[in-house]
C-alpha cells in the first residue's frame, strides 16, 4: 500500500454558472505603438522600435470578481497587439520587470527548472513568426528581472495572426497561465485588397481558461507529491475572452471578422454560435485558406488560430451566444437597425498550392509517447523517445522539404508546433499502437483521412490525434540555426515534450 501525502485543498472557486453573465463589454487589446525608430543591427536601417515590459498588474475579469493578479505584457492581458506589415522589419525590446518571487508553484524537479534559478525568468517567442534563431526566444535564453532582450522580427511572411508568449524553460506553463500572451498581426496588400471586414469590424478573440478563486486570483493546482508539484494538464473553471469572463459584444447586423486564438494551457475548444449562423472560416494559423468554409462547430487546439467571418445581417435584434460545447462563453447583441455593409466575403481567397509529396527529400517517423508512474498517472511525455538534452536528431537542410510522421502512441491528442516554419497537413491514419511499441513497425488499421477543410491551408500547429499517424509536409525556409518543436499543451511542453531541431546549411559544391 502506497501512502500518499494529502493534496493541498483547492481554495474556494468562483462558479461562473451562478454569476451574472454579460455585464462586461468585451475588451479589445490596444494596439502597441512604436517608441520611434532604431538602427537595425543586421541591415543598418532605421526600423520601428517597440518596448513592451513584462510586469505584474491587476485587472478585473468580471464586474463581481476582485481584481486578478496577472503577470503579462504592458498593462493588460492579453498584452498590446503588434500590428506589422509583411516585409517590414521591427525591433521589440522585452524588459523583464517582474517581482522576484513566482506566484504559481514551480516544480524544481523538471528539466531546466532547478532550484537556485531566478524564479521569474522569462523569454519571449513569437509563435508562427519566421524569425532568426537569436530572436526566436530559445527556451534557455531566459533572463531575470532587471534584464531585457531586444529581438528583431523581419516579418518576411504572408499576412497571418501570430501571437507572442513566454517560452522560459521549465516554467512556461506557469508564465503563460499568469498572463504572458499577446497578439501579433501581420498584414499584406494582397489581403487588404480582399475587402474583408476591418477596423472596428475585425475583432480578436483570445480564449484561455483559468481556475479562479473567490478571491479573484488564478489558482494552479499541484500534484500529490510536494516536491514534484507538476500536473499533466491544466483546465480552468472560467474561460476568459480577451481577459473577461462571460463578456458581451454589441454588434451591428453585418459581417464581422473574428480572429480566434486558443491560448489555453491544455484545453481544446469546440466553438459554436447559438443556433445559427455558422462560422465562415477564412484562415488558419498561417493565413488565408483557399476559400471560405462553413464550420458549424469549430475545433481549435492550444496554439492554433482560426480566422472567421460571421454575418449578423439576418439576426437583427437577436442575442447570440458563443458556446464551447454547451457552455456559453460570451454573448453577441445584434442591433435592430439595419446598416450598410460595404465589406466582402469573397468566394475564393488565395491560391494554396496542391501538395506534391514527391517534393519531400526525406520522411521522418517521430513518436509521441507518455511515460506513466506506478499509479498509472503520466510522469512525462516525450518526443521520439528522447529528452530535451539528448543530442539534436532532426537536422533538416535549409530550403528542403520533409515529411514528418507524428506517430501518436498515447490516448490523447497533442497539438504539435514547429517554430520557424509553416507546413501542410497531408493526412491522419490510424495505426496499431502495440505494433509500433513492441515491433517498431507502423501497421495501419484504417484509411488515411485528409485534413478537415479548415485545416487545408498553411499551418504551424497540428492536432496529432491519438493512435494515429499524422503526416505533415514542411519546407524549412528562412534561416539556419537551432529552433524547437513541441507539444502546445504547456504542461507537456514544460516536462520534456519539447525537442530542439536544427536547420543546417546545404552542403557546399
Ligand atoms: Cu506557441 Cu514554442 O510556441
Ligand atoms: Cu512557436
Ligand atoms: Cu502533449
Can you give a write-up of this model?
- By secondary structure, the chain is mainly beta.
- It has three domains: 176 residues, Immunoglobulin-like (Sandwich); 136 residues, Immunoglobulin-like, CATH 2.60.40; 147 residues, Immunoglobulin-like (Sandwich).
- It has four helices and 32 strands.
- Strands 11, 12, 13, 14, 16, 18, 19 and 21 form an eight-stranded mixed sheet that branches. It has a five-stranded mixed sheet with strand order 15-23-22-17-20, with no helix packed on it. Strands 25-24-26-30-28 form a five-stranded mixed sheet, with no helix packed on it.
- Strand 3 and strand 4 form a beta hairpin.
- The longest helix has 7 residues.
- The termini are far apart.
- The model has no long low-confidence stretch (mean pLDDT 95).
- The structure holds CU-O-CU linkage and copper (II) ion (2 copies).
- The site of CU-O-CU linkage has 10 residues, from strand 7 and strand 31.
Task: Detail the topology: elements first, then pairings.
Blueprint (H helix, E strand, L loop, with lengths): L35 E4 L6 E6 L2 E6 L8 E6 L5 E7 L4 E4 L30 E4 L22 E4 L6 E7 L5 H7 L2 E7 L1 H4 L9 E11 L5 E2 L18 E4 L2 E2 L2 E4 L3 E8 L6 E5 L5 E6 L2 E9 L2 E3 L4 E7 L7 E6 L2 E8 L27 E11 L5 E6 L17 E8 L5 E5 L4 E8 L2 H7 L21 E4 L3 E8 L5 E7 L2 H5 L3 E6 L6
Parallel strand pairs: 2-6, 5-10, 11-16, 15-23, 24-26
Antiparallel strand pairs: 1-2, 3-4, 6-8, 7-9, 9-10, 11-12, 11-13, 13-14, 16-21, 17-20, 17-22, 18-19, 18-21, 22-23, 24-25, 26-30, 27-29, 27-31, 28-30, 31-32
This protein binds CU-O-CU linkage and copper (II) ion (CU) (2 copies).
Amino acid at each position: 500500500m502506497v501512502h500518499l501525502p494529502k493534496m493541498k485543498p483547492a481554495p474556494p472557486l468562483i462558479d461562473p454558472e451562478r454569476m451574472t453573465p454579460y455585464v462586461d463589454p468585451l475588451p479589445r487589446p490596444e494596439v502597441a505603438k512604436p517608441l520611434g525608430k532604431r538602427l537595425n543591427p543586421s541591415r543598418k536601417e532605421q526600423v520601428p522600435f517597440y518596448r513592451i515590459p513584462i510586469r505584474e498588474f491587476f485587472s478585473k475579469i468580471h464586474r463581481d470578481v476582485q481584481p486578478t493578479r496577472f503577470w503579462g505584457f504592458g498593462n493588460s492581458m492579453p498584452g498590446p497587439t503588434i500590428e506589422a506589415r509583411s516585409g517590414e522589419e521591427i525591433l521589440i525590446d522585452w524588459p523583464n520587470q517582474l517581482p522576484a518571487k513566482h506566484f504559481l508553484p514551480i516544480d524544481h524537479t523538471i528539466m531546466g527548472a532547478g532550484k537556485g534559478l531566478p524564479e521569474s525568468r522569462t523569454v519571449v517567442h513569437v509563435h508562427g513568426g519566421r524569425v532568426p534563431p537569436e530572436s526566436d526566444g530559445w527556451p534557455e535564453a531566459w533572463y531575470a528581472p532587471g534584464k531585457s532582450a531586444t529581438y528583431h522580427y523581419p516579418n518576411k511572411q504572408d499576412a497571418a495572426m501570430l501571437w507572442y508568449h513566454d517560452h522560459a524553460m521549465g516554467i512556461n506553463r506557469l508564465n503563460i497561465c499568469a498572463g504572458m500572451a499577446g497578439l501579433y498581426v501581420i498584414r499584406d496588400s494582397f489581403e487588404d485588397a480582399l475587402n474583408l471586414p476591418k477596423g472596428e469590424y475585425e475583432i480578436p478573440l483570445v480564449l484561455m481558461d483559468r481556475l479562479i478563486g473567490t478571491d479573484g486570483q488564478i489558482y494552479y493546482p499541484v500534484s500529490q507529491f510536494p516536491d514534484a508539484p507538476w500536473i499533466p494538464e491544466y483546465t480552468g473553471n472560467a474561460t476568459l475572452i480577451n481577459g473577461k469572463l462571460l463578456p458581451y459584444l454589441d454588434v451591428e447586423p453585418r459581417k464581422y471578422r473574428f480572429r480566434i486564438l486558443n491560448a489555453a494551457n491544455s484545453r481544446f475548444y469546440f466553438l459554436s454560435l447559438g443556433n445559427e449562423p455558422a462560422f465562415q472560416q477564412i484562415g488558419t494559423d498561417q493565413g488565408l485558406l483557399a476559400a471560405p468554409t462553413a464550420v458549424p462547430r469549430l475545433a481549435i487546439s492550444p496554439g492554433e488560430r482560426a480566422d472567421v467571418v460571421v454575418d449578423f445581417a439576418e439576426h437583427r435584434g437577436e442575442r447570440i451566444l458563443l458556446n464551447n460545447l454547451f457552455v456559453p462563453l460570451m454573448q453577441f447583441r445584434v442591433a435592430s437597425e439595419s446598416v450598410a455593409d460595404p465589406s466582402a466575403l469573397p468566394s475564393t481567397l488565395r491560391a494554396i498550392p496542391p501538395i506534391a509529396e514527391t517534393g519531400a527529400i526525406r520522411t521522418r517517423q517521430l513518436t509521441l509517447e507518455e511515460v506513466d508512474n506506478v499509479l498509472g498517472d503520466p510522469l512525462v511525455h516525450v518526443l521520439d523517445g528522447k529528452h530535451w538534452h539528448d543530442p539534436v536528431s532532426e537536422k533538416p537542410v535549409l530550403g528542403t522539404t520533409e515529411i514528418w510522421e507524428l506517430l501518436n502512441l498515447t490516448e490523447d491528442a497533442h497539438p504539435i508546433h514547429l517554430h520557424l516554419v509553416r507546413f501542410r497537413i497531408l493526412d491522419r491514419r490510424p495505426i496499431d499502437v502495440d505494433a509500433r511499441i513492441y515491433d517498431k513497425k507502423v501497421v495501419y488499421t484504417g484509411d488515411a483521412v485528409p485534413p478537415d477543410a479548415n485545416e487545408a491551408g498553411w499551418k504551424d500547429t497540428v492536432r496529432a490525434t491519438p493512435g494515429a499517424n499524422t503526416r505533415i509536409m514542411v519546407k524549412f525556409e528562412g534561416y539556419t540555426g537551432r529552433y524547437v518543436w513541441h507539444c502546445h499543451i504547456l504542461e507537456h511542453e514544460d516536462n520534456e515534450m519539447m525537442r530542439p531541431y536544427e536547420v543546417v546549411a546545404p552542403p557546399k559544391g
